Amino acid sequence: MEISRFNIRVYFLLLDEMQDCVLLSDELIKGKPFTKFPGGGLEFGEGPEDCAKREAIEELGQKIEILSQFYTTSFFQQSLFRKTDQIISIYYTAKLSEPARFSIVNERFNFDSSINQDQAFRWCKLEDLDIEEFELPIDRVIVQMLLAGKI
């Protein structure tokens, strides 16, 4: 299969500087569990920062403030889900505009099955990040950067 289109993904690294933590999203994507950073796909007519803000409202139910652009994919990455797509990912550092109102869990993939939930959020200390928990190759680059103190 030939690569025939770009798929632009936008993520935000939501930081809790007091606790030295970053927010992780555990999700079921096409029935498979993934640990990733919150965010999603850029829509036509939308800028990347606007995408990150929209994704925060959709996923967390509240606004974020973009602090800075952190990383943009610097290598070729084929999509794991659509083999004809080349993935370009943009990551921003961000903070909440107000105290967190979304649910936080303490264990990976601790979904609320009573509401058919397929996403759960948890804080992870930067020093406790484990690259092996991340399936997406570009997220693994971000984890390496965070572990190296690049934030």
User: Percent helix among the residues?
Assistant: 10-25%
* Level-2 CATH architecture: Alpha-Beta Complex
Put simply, the count of helices is 2
Shape: globular
Which regions have little confidence, pLDDT < 50, spanning 5+ residues?
A: none
Looking at how many chains there are and whether they match, the oligomeric state comes to single chain
Question: Helices and strands: which structural class?
Answer: alpha+beta
Percentage of β-strand residues: 35-45%
Q: Could you say how many structural domains there are in total?
A: 1
> Could you tell me how far the N terminus lies from the C terminus, measured between alpha carbons in angstroms?
37 Å
User: Which H/E pattern describes the elements?
Assistant: EEEEHEEEH
Q: Specify the biggest β-sheet.
A: 7 strands, mixed
What's the β-strand tally?
Answer: 7
Cα radius of gyration in angstroms? 15 Å
Structural commentary:
Strands 1, 2, 3, 4, 5, 6 and 7 form a seven-stranded mixed sheet that branches. The protein is globular. The chain has one domain: Nucleoside Triphosphate Pyrophosphohydrolase (Alpha-Beta Complex), CATH 3.90.79. A hairpin with a 4-residue loop joins β1 and β2. The protein starts with a strand and ends with a helix. With 151 residues, the chain is of the alpha+beta class. Helix content is 16%, strand content 38%. The mean pLDDT is 92. The longest helix is centred in the middle third of the chain and has 13 residues, at 48-60.
